[in-house]
Write the C-alpha cells for this entry.
Amino acid sequence: MVSFYLTREDIFHYAYAILHHPAYREKYALNLKREFPRIPFYDDFWQWATWGKQLMDLHLNYETAKPFGLKRVDQKDPKGFQNPSGLKPRLIARKETGDIEIDTHTRLSGIPPEAWDYRLGTYSALEWILERYKERAPKDPTIREKFNTYRFADYKEQVIELLQRVCTISVATMKIIEQMPK
C-alpha cells in the first residue's frame, strides 16, 4: 500500500505553478488585477506541485544561479581613456536584437528570445531589473542635494552579474512553463 502525505508546501508549490501557467494568466488577467487569485484544481496535482517546486527553487535561489554567458562589449572612449564619472547610464533593453545597453560604454548581447518571455506583471524579468536600477533624481532640490546618493556607476558590475543570473533563471523558468499543458 502506497501512502503519501500532502503538506502545506505541496499546496503552495501547486498554487505557485498555477500562477505561472500562461493559460491561467491569460484567462484571468482582468480578475488578477482586481481580486485575489482563485486557484483551480487540476487532475494532476502532483505534477503541478513538482513544477511549482522547481520554479520556487529557481526563483528563491537566483543569487546562486550560474550567470548566463552573455557577451559583454565595452567600447573604448573616443579620447582613448576610460572616465568612470563620464559614463551615462542607459539601461535600455532591445529585445529585437537581444541586447541591453548598460551605459554609454557597455552593452550586453546574446540574450536569447525566451529570456524576454518570462514576465513579472507587465515587464520581462530583465526589464524589471533595468527599471529598478535606473537613476532617478528627486524633484525637490533639498532632498536631491542631501539624500540622493545613488549612482549607477557604483553598482554597474553587480547589475551586470544580476542580469546574467536573471537571464539564466528566465530561460530555465520558460523551459518549465513550456512543459505545462496549453
Remarks:
- The two ends are 34 Å apart (CA to CA).
